[in-house]
Batch of 2 targets.
Target 1
Amino acid sequence: MKLAFRWYGEEDPIPLSYIRQIPNMRSVVSAIYDVKPGEIWQEESIRKRKEQIEKNGMLFDIVESVPVPEEIKLGTEQADRLTDVYCENIRRCAKYGIRCITYNFMPIFDWTRTCLDHKAPDGSSSLIFDSNQLKGLDPLKEEIHLPGWDRSYTQEEVRTLINEYEKIGEEGLWKNLENFLKKIIPVAEEYHVRMAIHPDDPPYSIFGIPRIITGENGIDRLLSIVDSPANSLCFCTGSLGCAAWNDIPGMAYKYGAKNRIAFLHLRQIKRKTDGSFEESGHLSDCGDLDMYEIVKALVDTGFDGYVRSDHGRMIWGENGKPGYGLYDRALGAAYINGLFEACEKGRTR
Ligand SMILES: [Mn+2]
């Protein structure tokens, strides 16, 4: 496995020199943040990011994310032109050594949470999703701001987008994903890049907006659209694991054996019966996901992709981007190292 750590560029309060000190840290997962979705990434920006990371003794060979503009997801008349731009960004990334690109196909909102600093009894804080807080809310009727939602949209724009997604529904979204993949995957293949789609987070519909990468059925369908290792998964245990019906170790084995996991996000969650959940420390004992079984499934299938600890808690008084502090993610990385070492050595005995 290739251990990686997400870093948000110059705005990120965590110095690269600290990330380097995490044992076995290989790659920095980053992106170009000075452009909007649908715009070309300037080569100068990519080169600069690569130099910054390499100067600190690590590699820049994986990107998270190249965002997909709403026009592509909605299949508007701009979709073809914007998909060409997306392909050009794949080529440019490849030119500077990128081997894996993460993206998602979630309409309008990226991840959804109701609170970003929920205090646990031990004094740490984490992101949570409380379904009770969303009950009765209707973004078509009232102004709703949830943490993590793109604030560049006005309420009116959000309403228009929700209406448009409701119009196309799940099948419309699938059709647009299919068109997109059929254009980008051949380019990714030609340039030796693996595209890694991040599942929907959480993996079910909120406010009636369609969500399609939510479990095994959707993933099987996605992978069959273009049957190539270039069309792969960013297997996010915490996103898929919010749905109790997803067997995460089983899925890790299934898609690992098919060589369709390019990137692994290890995130722990604690589920509640009403669909709410809390993010917790990475250890198996801290939540509902058995991290040992997940890593073992991957090691058993010969996994050699990228891995990073996903969303950590805020601990030891750290202030920073919710989910993306240094300390707990570094603990997560150390835990990942331990799990992989134990599973790999156990395998050869
Ligand atoms: Mn993730």
Target 2
Amino acid sequence: MVLDLDACINSLFQRQLLAESVIREICEKTKELLMSESNVVHIKAPVTVVGDIHGQFYDLLEIFKIGGYCPDTNYLFLGDYVDRGLYSVETMSILTCLKLRYPERVQLVRGNHESRAVTQTYGFYTECMKKYGSAQVWHYFTDLFDYLTLSVVIDNMIFCVHGGLSPSIHTIDQIKVMDRFREIPHEGPMADLVWSDPDPGREEFAVSPRGAGYTFGSLVVEKFLHENGMDHILRAHQLCMEGFQVLFDDQLSTVWSAPNYCYRCGNLASILEVGVEGERHFNVFEAAPENERPLAAESQRSVFSNGAPTGLYNNGTGTNAVGNGNGNNSNGGTGFLNSPGIDSAQDTIHYFL
Ligand SMILES: [Mn+2]
């Protein structure tokens, strides 16, 4: 079988799922490609940077409408492609195809949700079971996650990562020698890169309320930028009601690309266009109108409700920070919207403890 990536990309744009065997082949090829990428990929502007998408496939299509299609626009995606939204499979499928088709023009950084453990709790596993009737597709994609790079540097000036900094990483060279080809560990530098958050009220590192990674303050940012000769940190990972947030005297930006997060937070989203002179422009947008129609349809099917074949999403352990137990849709029939975890827009990892 000859893999026709353009045909795959076209059918995904038509909202059609790829066959399981095609996903397997695409993931195998993409792993080979990613294997040769550094933990720190150096790229050049212009590039359009995208934050968390979380399975909001219709909003991703909107991003291409606003930001331009591949390969006319270079894209850097900062992770958290899956979980929460209704279309993690479609989102991951199209991003993987685009990476494989245009490897130099599309960069995919790993987020804390690109993980076997997290996707079993926040929806991707259940969605794969529901759409393909087995866990194979989930296995193909989560195996691929282990190969995603951890960071990108734009024009030797902007350090890009999903979460943030780590008390055990002082130089970018230290990231380059890490062994990233593994599940995201519970702690240590690799966990910190995908889990940490800035805290404008602090100067140093502190314990994170998420239960993984750290919060880091102004002095940490200043020191990291100075020691590495960079002038900006660009990251995602945190919901911003205005779609983006700039902190620490313009030394750090958060870009958030899931509008009306979980189809109910009412927030704006943005993509960040980095120009050839290093200029940064946030392009702010609202939720795509298409979200209304499919969401109504999905509600009838109750995608992530009690009928899901795994029970993993609604595991009702009681200690689970995102679980309210048993998936009883007390509000009736809206499936994912009533699923646990949505009450808190900020993910935590307490279920590991
Ligand atoms: Mn995240």
